[in-house]
Amino acid sequence: MPAFHEHDSVVASSAAKIAAALSERLGDLTRSVGDIMVTEINDLRDEQLRHLLHDCVRATIGTVLFGIEHRIPLRQVEPPTAALEHARRLAQRGVSMDALLRGYQLGQKKMINVALHEVAAHNLDPQLSLNVSAQIADATLGYVDWICQRATCTFLDERNRWKQNPHIARASWVHEILSGEPVLNPDAVSLAIRYPLERVHLAAVAWREVSAGRDDLVAIERFVSRLCQSLGTRERPLFIPVDHLTGWAWIPLTPDQSATAIHRVHQFAETQADAPMLALGMPLCGVEGFRRSHAQAQDARIVAVTLGFNAQRVTAADQPGLSMAALLLRGNVAAARAWVGDVLGPLASFTDNDERLRETLRVFLHRGSSFKAAADELRLHPNSVKYRVRRALERRGRPITTDRLDVEVALLLCQWCGPDVLDRG
Prior knowledge:
six-stranded mixed β-sheet, alpha+beta, 6 strands, single chain, Arc Repressor Mutant, subunit A
């Protein structure tokens, strides 16, 4: 980063004012940069890491702007904790270092462009404007380059450490099964992973939102073992670590056990103080069932992570509307939010009144457009339902004609994901 000499004081002062102005828009800038990163880089779209990515982007931008505003020398800058933790989690999940570095490059480019527009908006003298733009660009490049170096070192150290994990060999077999390639000898693969593939499988994703200590994975694996015992299975579950807070699991069931398995998981988790967050697939049979149940569990996890602190302890794929919500969210939340806004118009606003109107309209449509049936479910008078439905359509700005399916899906998405897909104004 360039030194701040006396004759640069006007430039430095102007740059500081620009940085301070951008700091006031840190939330919007963070969302803008984060949306670009998840849109352009598939490996950064993992919903469970979305909040950590947001924290990483916010902390990195905030560090850069703080450094420019207060003229802090590069050697005194400490990389944000969130940036280093994000690098560790990507390494644990086998994401390439190219994805990590490209994320910083895209963020850097977006941030410099925003800064240049901010400089132009201040109507500075042309030469001063040029000098300020150059100083902000140089400072940003310097800070981001330094943070990238530290994040890269953290990434490589964590990747080397993770490769020494004793679960790696089994994980390699599991990833090969999940790839969709034919499993020519299920018995041999079952022996290799020490888990019976020719069973009914209940797949789960188990995770902690906040670390409780160094043995998080051990605690999660022990919980899965106790859960397996509570279901009455005679064989051990398969557990594959994903990162230090997340694991994939498969529980082998008999056909008789599968009918009530999801309900019993709910019951067991509610009684365990140390229960992690759980996302479940449906109990399905054989190699294809192993894959499909896992895919369903991943869908349930996408929705649960989007719900955040509003999520239940157990989110299962058998819940109505979940698969459709996950399908829309899997691309990216920003795209889902835009689509919901297009379909529902002002009805997608983040207000208590619109929430009541959306819920009434959702139940009304789900009940075959019957005011009486909707009133019974909502415990309202039929006239109250009629009024709310009419107000909901007024808020939407148009009647429901050929786009009924879109409206129902958008309402389900609002029900599942709440604030993340609503217009906060």
